[in-house]
Structure formats: structure tokens, C-alpha cells
Amino acid sequence: MEKTGILYAGKAKTVHTTADRDLMVLEFRDDTTAFDGEKTEALADKGRVNNLFNAFVMQKLQDAGIETHYVKTLSDHESLVRNLKMMPVECVVRNRAAGSLVRRLGVEEGQELTPPVFEFFLKNDQLHDPMINDFHILSFGWATEAQIAEMKSLTFRVNDVLKSLFADGDLILVDYKLEFGVFDGRVVLGDEFSPDGCRLWDAKTMEKMDKDRFRQGLGSVVESYMEVGRRIGVQF
Is the separation of the CB atoms in 193 and 214 below 8 Å? Predict the structure, then answer.
């Protein structure tokens, strides 16, 4: 698929237009950022690893009946995806307490959350992705009531599929974020699912195997991503 231009260049991915207005090329770069871009580094091979990891997970979700924007892998760093009209919200599910939830509520890291906690955040780096709720989304026209309900339903369906997938690899899916868009009137999963956008711990040692390794200076970031992928069946 020939690229015709750059639609958007984010912190770690670039979205390219194509001659087909319904399709785009999603390029995964080696760039890695944390704390709203305050910490930045290029990690060798990370783009390739995240591209292949995301393709594997998206295919698993599609096999489970969850529609995603992923079409096919084009190269080590690029995938063909559908052109969604993205909704500017992030859907976060927390199966265990970690990160900002611990800081906000003063709860113990690792505490199991039953039922899982669902949260909405506005996708806006300049505002540090503030927490929002259904009423903000409706009032500002970011999504309809039906779309909100569908995003919640799909996010929990993803949780069921991926908790089991990672558990089979002796991993705990602590939390994650998803982004959705609209394609032909349907709410469809977009963006990516990789260790950049979730927390994954080793089920036996509780070792952090995700982007917290970069945030906290623990090292072996890409190596940990690859170990997670191998445990669930990703072929690198």
C-alpha cells in the first residue's frame, strides 16, 4: 500500500494517508516517551516489537468477535489500518491498583479490584489527559450516549479476552487503555495494544514487564516487551 502523506505524527507512531480514503498506514517508531513527553528516548527495535505485538493482539480480539481497525501487517514497522473517526477519549480498565490510581486514592499498589475499575480520560497531552465522565463526553459532543455504552461494553469484552490470554503466559494484566473511533457508523477499536499502553506483571515474581520499566528506569524495556510477547505466542 503506497503512502501519500503524513496525517499525524504522535509520540511513538506516525499515521500515513493512502490513495484509499478508508485505509491508512500506521508506522511504529522506536521513540519512547513518558510523563507527557518530559522523558524521551529512542529504544532500538521497539517499533518493530510493538508493531508485531499489536498485530497479534488485534487479531486475537478480532477472532473473539471484537472489531478493530487492524487490517494486516505490511512490514516490520508498519500495519494497514482502517481510517476511523477517532473519539478523543481514553477508556481505562484497572484490574489491580497501580499508577495514578494509587497516587489519587492512596491505596496499596497491586490490590485486586473486584469488579475492575473503569475510567474515562480526555486525550489531551497539554492538559495531561484529565479524568472525565459520561456527562463531560455528552456535554462537549465527544461521543453519543450509545457510543459511550458501546465503548464500555467493548472495553470489558477486551478485558475478558486479554486477561485470559496473558494469564496463560503467567502474566497479570494490571491495567490498560483503549481508544475507539467510528467506521461506517460502528464503534471500532483503534490505536494500538502493546506494553506501551498497559501494565503487565509477572504472575510469580510481580516483576514489571511494561512501560513502567522506562518510566522508572528499570532497564531492559524492549527485552521485557519481547518476553511478554513470546509468552503469549507472538513471533518476533
Answer: no
Residue 36 above 80 pLDDT?
A: no
* Cell numbers 503506497: residue: 2
Query: Which residues constitute the domain of residue 130?
Result: 85-220
Query: From CA 142, how far away is CA 146, in angstroms rounded?
Result: 12
CA–CA distance, 101 with 196 (Å, rounded to integer): 18
The number of folded domains in the chain is 2
pLDDT value, residue 35: 81
Tell whether 54 and 107 lie within a shared domain. no
Tell me phi and psi for residue 106, to 5 degrees.
Answer: 70, 25
Domain containing residue 173: CATH number = 3.30.470.20
d(CA 196, CA 71): 21
Q: What's 72's domain CATH number?
A: 3.30.200.20
Q: What is the mean pLDDT of residues 88-108?
A: 97
Q: How far is Cα 152 from Cα 75, in angstroms, rounded to an integer? A: 32
Task: Give the span between the Cα atoms of 72 and 74, in whole angstroms.
Answer: 6
Q: What is the mean pLDDT of the chain?
A: 96
Residues 208 and 147 in one domain: yes
Global pTM reads 0.95
Phi, psi (degrees; rounded to nearest 5) at 92:
-115, 130
Residue 81 identity: V
Nearest to 154 by CA among 41, 69, 29, 31: 69
Q: In this structure, which amino acid lies at residue 119?
A: E
In a domain, 213, yes or no: yes
Q: Is 126 left (phi over 0), alpha (psi -120 to 50) or beta?
A: alpha
Count of residues for the chain?
236
Q: What is the DSSP letter of 48?
A: H
pLDDT at residue number 233: 98
